[in-house]
Input
Amino acid sequence: MMINWKKAVGITAAAAMLIPMAACGGNDNNSNGGASSSAPAETQSVNLSVWSPQEDADWLKDMEAAFEKAHPEYKVTWKNSVVSEGDAAKTVQTDPSAAADVFMFANDQLGTLQEANAIAPVNDTVAAQVKEQNDQTIVDSVTGVDGKIYGVPYTGNTYFMFYNKSKFTEDDVKSLDTMLSKGKVSYQLQNSWYIPAFYLGAGMTMFGENGNDAKAGIKFENADAVSKYLVDLVANPNFTNDDGTAGLSNLTSGAVDAYFSGSWDAAKVKEGLGDNYGAAAMPTFKADGKDYQMKSLAGSKAVAFNPNAKSPEAASAFAAFLGSTEAQKKHWEMRQIIPTDKTLTDLEGMKEDPAVAAQQKTLAETSVVQPTIAAMNAWWTPAETFGKSLVSKETNADNYKEKTQAFIDSVEKDVAAQSAE
Output
């Protein structure tokens, strides 16, 4: 999910997110089991504070107990608090030195966390783990401008398509235009995380080949053709703009037949559609006579440790443990969190869940790694403003070229301002 830092809540609200969870205390029986071949001569007592989403409370407690068994060299006193991946950076910013030792974050926050000195690069051993477990797209998602890896990924973070199989075939969902001719499609056009899928598909680039060159800026290709397509899309009676609140319920109620979101909605879509539950990677669209492949922004959710931690070695080890193969396997079993680990492709229930294949194909074929540098903040507000103007028809068939140029100018101005900071 995308985080817009210009709209981040203030210090008071961020601090209020630190809701204590029941913590798992130290285990006096660490020597009874674990991954280590032999117990260390001395046991080190450490305190570790951990942030995670509320939904992960049970999983986290299980992982803490497993970590204690695997690492008898540590006797850990845990302090768990509720902070979601999407809220990690803005909560950290209140006081990085007082932030959790280990936390889960959405990778688009990497630049902000680095600027706050609140995230540490992983060591060589953990870096090797990350590279072995993940495809390059996921590795790139947690790689800083300095080439170092920050955090251990555990699930992808992107969007794809959910659809009603009674309305569309597997062949239909390859083309957005085919879908619009047969049923109703919902999309968050005013959302600045979703609208770039059209422009990226037509050749737009963000900050160079690797997404980390602020000087390269955001370069548009075929922008007029895409904007005209979006003007026509809004006018299509089979298109429904999703305002971010009703898309899921519209799909499950039958008001629309396709909806774009991510794996976080998979369980609810499955429950609502039953046997008609379908999911697929991004479709193509035809603009100005040419076919383009929509490309979503993609990243990951990862576990990191705070360089200000009083026990950095233990914090680093636990962060790596939460992103390990076994932890990701347990995450799937308990919450159906789709793992990034390349070896975890055949877990029970995976083959029956089309969202798994849809996310994997999206990450591999129909996405662009979302830049994590601070200059990316230049995109969010102008893109949202332009998307809203399309939805309201302020941008229309008569003025779309002029409005598109104004959009481009606004993005370029903000990129220059961000790069100068």
In short: The first strand starts at residue 19 and ends at 20. The mean pLDDT is 90. Residues 5-157+299-368 form a domain with the D-Maltodextrin-Binding Protein; domain 2 fold (CATH 3.40.190.10). Residues 400-420 form the longest helix (21 residues).
